[in-house]
Amino acid sequence: MGLVTALPEWYPWPETETKPAPMPLLLVQAFVNTLDVEQGDDLLSADWLVAAGLLDQSAHVGSGELELARAMRESMRQLLESGAGDLEPLSEVAAARTARLLVGKGGALALAPAGDGDVTDALFQLLLIVRAAQEDGTWSRLQVCANDTCRWAFYDRSKNRQGHWCNMAVCGNRLKNRELRARQRDRSRARGAAG
Question: What pTM did the predictor assign?
């Protein structure tokens, strides 16, 4: 996985992404970020899956398949946040498909969905990317912003892997200011109770 120097055209929020993951993990990051929790904007659609290269333009997408995709997106967000959560949507997609082994240039081996190119195959492809990222160690760098009103997925490039916010100037400052105000209120209450 190489370093992403420019966001691809399909990336849903190019104007705000400051911490992109390397490809192909960026696909998973972008998938999770198709829901802007703070603004309530949801970009997850058949068009987005096609633009991301996960789905063929001729594929039919039913509402049930999009609901599964949304459930899987939130399951992935929970997995990034806590390493747990409702993993049933991930299990459902994994159980519905099998992988086939591809031989690429120079004998490089890769896994791909062995299905017919539908939405479940697209979701399975994302699971294969997660598996590869877990194996190469990049998965642990994909984080969810500690600001509970944001929950944006970002790629932590810090040496100690202790990043907490998608954007320090925005979410980091908001949380630090909240904590400061809470401490000031507590001190004020303590003074009032002592007086």
Answer: 0.84
